[in-house]
Batch of 3 targets.
Target 1
Amino acid sequence: MRMASLTNTSILTTKAGDILYERCYGDLFDAVACARYLVMSAVILVTAILCVVRIYQLHRVRHGALHHYFIFYSSTFCCILCLVHWLIGDYAQLDFLAQWFKLAAYLFVTHSLWTRAHQTIQTDKLTNCCLLPGLLLGLIYCTTTVILGAVMVTNYQSACRALEWVMMSSAELLIVQTFLIAAFFISKRLNAISTVEIVRTSQQRKLWGLVIVFEISAIASFSYDLAIRILGEKYQTCQEIFSSEQWIYSLVYGTFMIIKYALPMWAMLAALDAVPTLYRADEDFTESFHSTQSAVGDRRNQYIPRLFQSLRRDDS
């Protein structure tokens, strides 16, 4: 019993001196670390609530695009895992799993856009030979990397230097580049459609806004993981990379987590709306436009663009 007590005391002493373990409670309390976790948890909790609301809206209107359900369910699970990880701490496995759900959402968004974009390229071989296999290959790669990370990373003090983080962020960067290519074809199609200029402008703004946010998040993730991996070669623990200064670690890590997880979800919430099945037209690759005020003679009718929904072709 005394040996176990001494061991536990030694572990607590080690944790108390490590900026990665400092929390809002007990012997591990630190004001700066506590403020960081409260801000991060509040941001991700609000994001999770918004994702749950969007899921409810999708079911309520019987939204026709299955991709959207997968996207926001994955985003919700990602938020929950982040929240648990930040409150409990010390478990890199939770972070790996949260990253998996984030990349799953990315894959479904990209697959959804390419499903629409393939008609611009005018080839069915893309759908049969690339889209579904690409989605499955991406999920298999991410799953394998997460399993490797969960098994190989056992020491939380050096978990930030794991190669698996670079593997995950590089996969994210690749997914985003394929998303960018699909966005180019969608944008080309939007410019060829005869419709109201303000509608087309709104479409383009939503599409490229999503692309820009994804690029920022992906580049930030890859740059951070690669930099930590390189700097980690010179140090034995993660806290040494940040000069064992809690305020430096909190500023860098807190900002990075919001850019990595919350920012892309905000972009998807803004771009991917819940559209009633009634307004779905055919299986074209762009959005459906419908009036939110359809009363006859109402001059206030507004046409709202819905990204990744179908649109009747207008080749006139």
Target 2
Amino acid sequence: MSCPTVQKCCGCIGLETAGITMGVLDIIIRVSHAYIILNTEQRDIYFQVRGTREKTIVTVPPELLTLIDCLCFIITIVYLLGIFNSKRKWMIPSMVLSFASAIVSLCYCIAPLIDLITGVKGKQTDSLFYFIFFFCIAVFFVYFLVIQYSLYKCTKEGKKSPDTRYASKGTISDV
């Protein structure tokens, strides 16, 4: 069974434009996240993990998270270079990253879902919010993966993929 594909992102945006836009937004998010991590003084509150009876605080070294952001930044740069140079193989690491992000987001949905099922008093509103939030994030990453895979499928080695920017002229031209 193969991954589903789409012709256009959101029904009206060309795959190449959508891929570039998502790559640039990912770079902005990674850089701002690394900046926030390195300039936040209260890291304990930021990395709080919910416990059953008492709060469990986990402190993750900010350098580790910055390193992960840097690796993701490099993967996104390679993805963008793959789009610009029509190199399909350069897009694969970013698709793996999107798949892993979707899985992690779905894992974050488990604890709030358990709280909702067990009916822990006082946590239903927060748990519902966190469940919906992380589920929407997971759906976003899955859709991002579908767009990346569609762009990967329609990109030929050495040729630019068709884009909606040229649809108004009646022809599809190379960029």
Target 3
Amino acid sequence: MALMYTGVKMRSATSAASTGSDTSLRESPAQSPQQGGDLPGTSRSSRSIAQSEGRSNASNLSSRSPHMTSETTRRSAIPMDEESGSVGRPSPVPSIDDEQKAMVRECLATIEAGLVNSGVHLNAERVLSYVETITRKDDTVGEGESLLKTSGIYIVQDGVLDMCAADGETVTQRLEAGDFFGELSVLFRVPSNRGVEVVSRKVTLLLIPADVIREYASVETGAQGFSKEVMLNWCVKRSYLESSEIFGQRVLARNVVLSCLKESILSDLSLEAMEFIAELAIPMLFDPGDVIYSAGEEANYLFLILKGRVHILKGENIVETKTVGCSDEGCCLGHLEFFNSVKLSYSAKAAGPVIVAMVSKEVLLEMLNTFQEELRALQVLLSRYKIRK
């Protein structure tokens, strides 16, 4: 099954198939957070998403995610809920071991580095005293019991989880050791209706409670803080396409694709040309096991892997695995055949949830009709990737 991101929300035309997991864990919304003809594989395993209707939530974003600036860098950067008034100092919890501390430090360092131009600082050393450990085994949790006990940032220490979209069934990301989630709700005050499903028999999570983050986060004087622009950049960096409704029609999807294009084989094009392509590219979500494309098909698309793990196959044998994490740059598949107008030599299959942006030949031709000065850059690409016989 493949889902198409075509509007402000990702919606399925029919009900998603069950994942087979018997434990669904959902965050509390109150607390946390065409071009190019037939698509490859659509006749076998994919289905489209209906064009989203309804208005954007961007107009009321400021009340939930204000542009924060502080008089001093030691002031708490993230406001509490109106009903709670002010930040209360959290109570310490039993200490975690050195390996867990290293994971917390790495998580907070990744977040701080990724909040570009925000001036946000997260005091990891102070946070360490309040981190909680949550362990779940499939024989110790009753039906309907939630692993997500409170609002906060969750780090996967070991085990495997699937992040699900609002429908509770569509898997948007597979989470493994070192991955984290919940930061969007905590940092930007965006209510979350996503959930996670336990895949492995045992899962251990590290929880940094939201009130701890709020206590020990600060913003430099005059910096952007937790502005809408900073949040958009963060969602682009993490390829959080399921958050598209926050920013309005196609804004997030376009920016995620543009970010990938800037690091792809098309990076020599002008910014205007890449923006044109990003507007027309087709972002798709593939489920684990879905065929992205098959050997022998016409190479009518460039496949930009935005996030996820893809197996490259020759026949039934896996010859290579491409992995693009939340903090990695995307990669391009099928370009040799695309630029040589030959049929695809290999097949590609989703090894987990995979987000792929598809750029058709028609999109490139339309771009050339609009930006004729880009012809030279494309000629260089054709020469660079020409198959020598």
